[in-house]
Structure formats: C-alpha cells, structure tokens
Amino acid sequence: MDTIDLTFVGRGLHEELAAYIADQQDYYADEGVHVALRDGCAWDNERVRHGATIGLGRALLTRLADGIPWVALNVNTHRPLFWFLARSGLTCLADLAGRRLAIHAPHTAPGCFARIVLRQAGLDPDRDIQTIVRPPGDYGMDLRRLRDGTIDAALVGTTMAPEAVAAENGWQVLAWIGDHFQIPTVGVAVDPTYVQPDDPAVQAVVRAHRRALETIRTEPDITLRHIRTFIGRHTADEVRAHYETFIAPYFNPDGQVDLDVGATAITAVAAELGIPATVTAAEFYRTAP
C-alpha cells in the first residue's frame, strides 16, 4: 500500500472536512493509500513542503513570496470560510473603523484575504482599525474577548458556525469572506521538489478527495454526521443550516478549478502582499484530471 503525509494548516471544516470524510468513509483505503493526516498549523514552510498539503491559500502565498514551487491538484471550494463576527451595535464592515479587531497576521492566507475584503469596504487595515493579531486556533479566546468587551470584532473560521454563535449571543456577522473574495483555497497541493504530482499516492489522495467532495454535495446525511464531530457545540438544525448555506452549494464535487477566479485572486493577493504576481493561475492550478 502506498503511503503519504497530508498536512492541514488550519483547523475546522474549511481545511479538514474532505480529508476527514475520505478517511472515515474508507475512500483512502479503497484507493490503496495510507494517509497520515498531520496537524501542520505550527509548522514552518520547509516542513510542510515535504508532504502533500490541504492549504492552497498558504501554498499560494509561499509560492509568491518565497518561490516554493507548489502545484495545486485539487480544489475543494473557491469561497474561503471565514467570517467577521462582531458585538452588537456594529452592522457592516465600515463600522469597524476605529474598532478593535482580532485577526490573523497579514502574511497568512486568512489574514491576507481579510485585508483584501476590508480594503474593498474602504478601510485601511493598518490605519483605520485597531488590529489585534493572533495565531490560528479554535477562536475560543476571541469569543471570550467579545463577551467581555476587550475586542469589538474577530475574524473567525469553521471551528464554529458563526451565524449560530451570533444568534446565541446577540452579535452580528458583518460579512462572509467568501461573499466578497473568491480564491481556490483548500484542496491538495504538492511541492515537486519533494513530492511528484503524478506519484501514485498523490493521485490516490486526489481521487479519494474528489469522492469525498461528491459525498458532500450528494449525501447530506453522511456529511452532517461528520460535520457534527467538528462543531458539536451546535444543534442539529444549526449544523444543517451551516452546511446548506456555506458548504453544500460551494464545495466542488469534481475538485476542478476555475482559472479565471484563480487569476483574479492571484493578482489581488500579490497586490496585498506588495510583491509581483510571479505565477499564473495555469502554472499554479493543474486542471488536468
């Protein structure tokens, strides 16, 4: 049996759902590959590049900034699953002016995406907002700080259903990143320096993930059962609403990329990072089966 390390570099449904379903439903086993799912959230880029990775956003940023020759072979979604969650009294992104926002660092994928969306709303993230930079996690401390008033808003991901958390606490979801900025953002990528795209183990993972994506789109009962293991704090109705609103409509059942979306996103990311767009969408995202 072929073996491979597969690293997620962010926590929650956004990064982990397709791989989790492929593992739990034995799609990897059916493809004859043993996959070691690795938590690489705190790993440096050199360590991540020695295996396959789910984090296409981080892969793109490091290809642009550091020249690491990542190639994306499968795309789960073009809509990043991050939200601006705010205390009551704030109703839109423009209301963040002068407020305290917990957010990922500018050189991280979610931080970069969020800054792009803030600029679209007419806000300079470095001047108009009091940003509190914090590393990725389960966002539990952000929720505590929202409750005690030490921050006004936070960028959060899929370790929770933000719309349900907002309703429970009387808060507001100011914006979903995926509504304002599209980018092929999670899937399967490899660095050919260490792992060849056509390696049998890699191709087996890609096939298993595409099968998992088909399950996500066509078998809601199976998918919801697995989603509840990630966000068990929520009711069955809240989990289903989250799935039906943000996941089922936007996860690609075939794992294919929209190169036009990719090209626009690369230009925007490079501009936000202040570096040249040294790679094209066709070079970074492989469209062949």
Protein model, in words:
The chain is of the alpha/beta class and 289 residues long. It has two domains: 2-79 and 183-284, D-Maltodextrin-Binding Protein, domain 2; 83-180, D-Maltodextrin-Binding Protein, domain 2, CATH 3.40.190.10. Helix content is 43%, strand content 18%. Helix 4 crosses helix 12 (259-273).
The overall strand count is 10
Count of separate DSSP helical elements: 13
Q: What is the CA–CA distance across the termini? A: 22 Å
Unreliable stretches (pLDDT < 50, length at least 5) are none
Please trace the helix and strand order, writing H or E for each element. Answer: EHHEHEHEEEHEHEHEHEHHHHH
CATH-assigned homologous superfamily of the largest domain: Periplasmic binding protein-like II
Biggest beta sheet summary: 5 strands, mixed
Number of domains: 2
Overall form = globular
According to CATH, the fold-level topology of the largest domain is: D-Maltodextrin-Binding Protein, domain 2
Radius of gyration: 18 Å
Strand percentage lies at 15-25%
Strand order of the largest sheet: 2-1-3-10-4
Quaternary state, please? single chain
Mean pLDDT: 96
Structural classification: alpha/beta
> Can you identify the CATH class of the largest domain?
Alpha Beta
- Report the helical percentage: 40-55%
Tell me what the CATH architecture of the largest domain is.
3-Layer(aba) Sandwich
